[in-house]
From TrEMBL:
Keywords: DNA-binding, Phosphoprotein, Transcription, Transcription regulation, Two-component regulatory system. Residues 124-217 bind DNA. Gene3D superfamilies: 3.40.50.2300, 6.10.250.690, Winged helix-like DNA-binding domain superfamily/Winged helix DNA-binding domain. The lineage of its organism: Bacteria, Bacillati, Actinomycetota, Actinomycetes, Kitasatosporales. Residues 2-116 form the Response regulatory domain. This is Transcriptional regulatory protein CutR.
Length: 217
């Protein structure tokens, strides 16, 4: 899942981004509304965590722009105001969910995951394919009943492949969904991660390389 965090309190923004990355999400961070519009125009995001009171371009205008684009991106709006009328107004702008500050990080993570599921074709809570079971919420992976310990990026790559339901996923698509924009697109990070993932999943191999196209399970 790829997420954009838009928050002008930089310490909070960076803390949220770090926490979501630990949950195997690819996260970009910006600190004002103008930068948010720039990123949204370039990258495809599953979820935007959007502070309402932003400098340069207000969060309301950012939310309106996302709606105007007609993209499947979901918006989780944040605000320091706990007033019910503010929450209603935010939802009427097109936000999909609303979370007042201060918030528990576990709740924010749960809401981001729930919104992320709404951007894709509905799938069972636990993904199963080729003897592998992957639980995105618990961040657990089992193969033939044996738990497999994966690093966050390995988990993210496996989740993307599992969600593709047998379709080929290109290295570029994996890079977009599992890494943030700071990753050099010309590195071999995808190939190395897939190799490590194959080793951890053990024999017989389930991740197939499709020459010139990408990978599939």
């Amino acid at each position: 899942m790829r997420v954009l965090v838009v928050e002008d309190e930089q310490l909070l923004a960076d803390a949220v981004a770090t926490g979501l990355r630990r949950e195997a999400m690819a996260v970009d961070v910006v600190y004002d509304g103008a930068a948010a519009l720039e990123r949204i125009g370039v990258n495809d995001y599953d979820v935007v965590v959007l502070d309402r009171d932003l400098p340069l371009v207000h969060g309301d205008d950012v939310c309106r722009r996302i709606v105007e684009l007609g993209v499947p991106t979901r918006v989780l709006m944040l605000t320091a105001s706990g007033d019910v009328s503010d929450r209603v107004e935010g939802l009427e702008l097109g936000a999909d969910d609303y979370l007042p500050k201060p918030f528990a990080f576990t709740e924010l993570t749960a809401r981001v995951r729930a919104l992320g599921r709404r951007t894709t074709v509905p799938l069972p809570p636990v993904l199963e394919r080729s003897g592998i079971k992957l639980d995105p919420n618990r961040r657990e992976v089992f193969r033939e009943g044996k738990e497999i310990q994966l690093a966050p990026k390995e988990f993210a790559v496996l989740e993307v492949l599992m969600r593709s339901e047998g379709a080929v996923v290109s290295a570029e698509q994996l890079l977009e969904k599992a890494w943030d924009e700071n990753t050099d697109p010309f590195t071999n990070v995808v190939r190395v991660t897939v190799m490590t993932l194959r080793r951890k999943l053990a024999e017989p191999p389930v991740i197939v390389t499709v020459p010139g196209s990408g990978y599939r399970i």
